[in-house]
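Technical note accompanying the year-one report. For the benefit of new consortium partners, we illustrate the data format agreed upon in the data management plan: each record pairs a sequence with a structure-token string. No post-processing was applied to the example shown here.
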Amino acid sequence: MPRMTAIVVLSHGSLSKGLVEAACMIAGKSSKLEYVCLEEGEGPESFRRKVDAVLNTFSEDDVLFLVDLFGGTPSNIASMLFLERAQADTGGQTSECTKPPVEQGSQGEVAALASGRRRSFALVTGVNLGMLLEAINNRANMRPDELASHLVEVAPATIVDLGRVLLEGVRKPS
């Protein structure tokens, strides 16, 4: 049985804070659930330090990053951490096209490696409240990579053209 995966929500502005607060309002307070907000004018190095500080609180836990937008700074920082994990798993063997620009892992990563257990990272972009709730409800039963695949699979169900659905219901003959 996998251990409960920690979830870190990353975003531009305060979106990640709002998503986590809303999820806690609906599902109750949840352990191993954190957010990191990229503030206006903040650089990647400062944001990376904030993400590393959050990862340090999870020590040896596996982590799922839920990110707002593919290709933005939060996504790029999560990608670097993911690639660093992959590089550690392969003994440093990565191709030039996948080699992360930052060579050191977080302190939490170092603690996990020192304990003999390799922590696992996964990341999914396009986070919304439905996806976050799905992740919270399923993280005790899935490894981070399984959880990421599951979230991508169910993501379309979290977005509905409600107006169209309502109109279709009105138009159906009784």
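Partners are asked to follow this layout when depositing records. The chain has one domain: 6-171.
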